[in-house]
Amino acid sequence: HNFSLFHFSFHPPTTLLMTLIFSSAFFPFVWCFIAFSSVRVSTALNQHIGSGGMADTRDPDAFADEDPRKSISAAPSFEEYLKQRDAGASSAEIAAPAAAAAAPAAASGGGGGGGDLASTLKDLQGPGQVWGDLGIAEGFEENDLKGYENFGKFAAAMESTGVAAELGAGPYTIFAPTDPTLESYETLRGPITADIVKMHIVPGKIASADVPTATLDSLNGPLVYRYAVRKHFVNDAIIGEKTFGPYDDYPMDVECSNGIIHSVGLCFAFY
Fold first, then answer.
1. How far apart are CA 149 and CA 128, in angstroms?
2. Taking the complete model, does pTM exceed 0.90, yes or no?
3. Closest to 128 (Cα-Cα) out of 6, 257, 244
4. pLDDT digits (tens, 9 = 90+) for 204-227
């Protein structure tokens, strides 16, 4: 037995010996990769690192410099580009700076005409939506009009919850969600209550261009404004949202006798 132990101590088995040799040969390569990754320096300039550990890739904000070569123009959004292309705009016109990048574009989608907020919402025509890829199976082109998203459900909710009766002479600003928007909320979150309706109504008359600097205190508490990816958001709903195709965008700045209406494609209470 003593001989066997002595023999093992100075003559290890072949498998163990090969493992030791392989490990010693492989270790320097592993160390090279570890060392390289630990000293790697990013060449990105002024990039914010998000919660996921990745650098933001947001487009830079537009600004004008004394030297035109250093200025950054406000490029159109993808939706705006498609509209300009469908309307037959030239390449130069499509590439031209978007004049109203610093504020939501005012675009009335019909309606208004001096009626009050509640009656205007009942008849207001909303954004025109195309079929997209779902239309192929139905025999439509992707760019064919599927229909308009109107505001009858929100007008009805104002009446059924009693909010319309509580409104005074005004003026008020209503961020009106479209019918499909409220249908999605009801499916995923629950019924439309008076508190949810009040969240979309702000005392005072606020034009879309003034939303970024306005005090947005709704009848159900303050709203949150932010500007990101060249778009304006209130409670995560885009203000001045564009549609795909040549049809009407979300109506904005719809004048009424007791206020103004801006349409949104997301219920303020969704998140």
1. 7
2. no
3. 244
4. 999 999 999 999 999 999 999 999
